[in-house]
Write a structure and sequence with these properties.
This protein is mainly alpha-helical. Helix content is 67%, strand content 0%.
Length: 262
């Protein structure tokens, strides 16, 4: 038995490392397995599953966009209601103070700020819907070679790390330019009418459009604040609004393609 064992060991030793390598598992020389269908789904634009996914996602983005659009409209409706109510209160009786109209200006400024914040959220979802319209559906109806072929990658990065596309300042300018500048103008005209018309003045002083500035400033007094300061403050605020609405250039990326905007 011992001689047989020694003979076997000597035979194994004679074979050497080649025998070990023969018994060891062979290294795979095959290439890595191709990615799964779910990994390459974004590359198969003609895939029925991918088309269905795009359709459902497009409808979902439209629903979210419409929801934020409804919030924008509600804020604008609140602002219009405030303007109408304050005009009714201030101009209906001479006993109403002209400060009611100044308070209305302050309220719609607050609503403008809220609406600009909501507009930033709306702009994110509106941009996604526009990506579908410009780069997917437009390519189906009117194909163009290599037109923004990386739009799906941009959309995917936006889904991974959502970010606002415009600043609060740009949103304020857009909403001011489209809606709120008209409300501010109506309030300003009503305020001027209030402090320059005798029948609408609480003191009933004989002033009008041709009256002296001293009488106008006296009626424009707001508590302990002199009328000169009040008029100067209102004029400065409206000059800033006009500059923001018409002189300061906003980042109108939405108008870079086409003339339709919301």
């Amino acid at each position: 038995m011992s001689q047989t064992t020694k003979a076997a060991k000597s035979a194994d030793a004679a074979k050497g490392p080649k025998s070990i390598e023969a018994n060891a598992p062979e290294r795979s020389t095959e290439k890595a397995a191709p990615p799964r269908a779910s990994d390459t789904l974004a590359l198969k634009l003609s895939s029925p599953e991918f088309t269905t996914t795009l359709s459902h996602f497009h409808r979902a983005e439209i629903a979210r966009m419409a929801g934020w659009r409804d919030r924008l409209d509600r804020t604008s409706n609140w602002a219009i209601t405030v303007v109408a109510a304050m005009l009714s209160v201030s101009l209906s009786t001479p006993s109403a103070h002209h400060g009611v109209l100044l308070f209305a200006m302050l309220l719609i400024t607050l609503l403008l700020w809220i609406e600009a914040r909501r507009y930033r959220f709306f702009d994110v979802y509106r941009a996604r819907v526009r990506q579908f319209e410009r780069y997917y559906f437009a390519q189906i109806f009117s194909p163009q070679p290599d037109y923004a072929s990386n739009w799906l990658a941009i959309l995917g990065e936006g889904l991974r790390s959502p970010r606002f596309l415009i600043t609060q300042r740009a949103a304020l300018i857009r909403r001011l330019r489209r809606n709120y500048i008209f409300m501010y103008t109506i309030l300003l005209l009503a305020w001027i009418l209030k402090i320059t018309t005798p029948s609408l003045s609480r003191e009933g002083s004989p002033i009008g459009f041709g009256a002296s500035l001293v009488d106008t400033f006296r009626v424009a007094t707001l508590g302990p604040i002199p009328g000169v300061v009040v008029v100067s403050g209102v004029a400065a605020c409206y000059l800033a609004l006009l500059a923001a609405a018409f002189l300061i250039r906003a980042d109108d990326g939405e108008l870079s393609v086409g003339d339709v905007h919301v």
